[in-house]
Amino acid sequence: MADAAHGPVLALTTGEPAGVGPELALRLAATAPSAARPVAVGDPALLAERAAMLGLSLSLPELAPGEPVPAARAGVLPVWPVALREPSRPGVLATANADYVLETLDVAVGACRAGHAAGMITAPLHKGVILDAGHVGFTGHTEYLRDACGIDEVVMMLATDRALHAAEPTWRGGGALRVALATTHLPLRDVADAIRAPRLARTLRILHGDLRRWFAVERPRIAVCGLNPHAGEGGHLGREELEVIAPCLDALRGEGLDLDGPLPADTLFTPRHLAGVDAVLAMYHDQGLPVLKYAGFGRAANITLGLPFPRTSVDHGTALDLAGSGRADPGSLAVAVALAAEMTSRGDLKAMTTP
Ligand SMILES: NC(=O)C1=CN([C@@H]2O[C@H](COP(=O)(O)OP(=O)(O)OC[C@H]3O[C@@H](n4cnc5c(N)ncnc54)[C@H](O)[C@@H]3O)[C@@H](O)[C@H]2O)C=CC1
Ligand SMILES: NCC(=O)COP(=O)(O)O
Which residues of the sequence carry a binding annotation for substrate (predicted)? Predict the structure, then answer.
């Protein structure tokens, strides 16, 4: 799977078939020579149909996981086939294909775990249609991959391209940002109850360990947001900072983690406060991700920390409104592929997962 001359084999799941995932994978393969060997996981007929729809001339050789994957060439996209459950039209969701989407993830995870791929990249899926199909409790790739790997905790982190590379110091300005989340896909009314010290501590240990492991940040400095406005205003605007977050951070500082916070989120996300910080931990999805997307939408990637192999993804969703049009920007997928390739080269840092 690892081949110094041709780069690592990476499973690239093509996501919701009615969304932009299939066409972004095709457009990337049509134009960009890759440092890795991405293999699309999806329906070959669907990919051929979308390629024709977009006027792309591509060869889509079908392989089985474990078969040799040739060096990447512009215009060639090898495919590990998974069959659609019913034909798919751009922009039109079908619950029948929810199992297809999940099967692509299972194939990619199986390939990573068997050593046929060094990591995986995921094009966007549609959480709503998977739930509508009856997969109760499905909240996204992040938790699905956690469960598929039989581990207790993972962490979602998004990073702009300027903050991806360890060799390049972080926070040089110009939109370099890494934002991890203490909670992911929860209704806002449930967020405060989910901020509990044991889970927060596990999240911060994973973030600290994986910044070292995958990003070669030797001594990560992490800024932690408060939950409430003004980080609770001394308890007058909420007590989570005083009762949960601050004591948890104190305990982790005793373990050697370099943590700043809890800080008011509005001023934390300013250049002066971000100087010297390697990652921000936001308490919830829409506290951290709008800032990240403002800084770098289209050139950022989503990374699942805590998995036994690299998994990266795009910074956007299925964009059903653009599917089939050829107008969706493949920039984030390109960043996700490049990052996954780079992460696989950091295997020697795997031991550095605990503080
Ligand atoms: N990694 C993943 O699997 C992700 C999946 N989603 C899922 O996607 C579905 C749709 O979510 P939305 O909130 O509507 O977000 P979305 O990202 O699909 O769309 C929001 C807006 O951004 C635009 N946009 C998205 N990707 C673009 C691209 N590559 N180039 C240009 N414009 C682009 C869309 O046209 C739309 O106007 C939901 O089911 C959500 O859960 C959302 C984020 C990540
Ligand atoms: N907003 C980020 C997002 O929805 C990504 O979720 P996941 O499918 O990567 O877990």
Answer: 141-142, 293, 302, 311
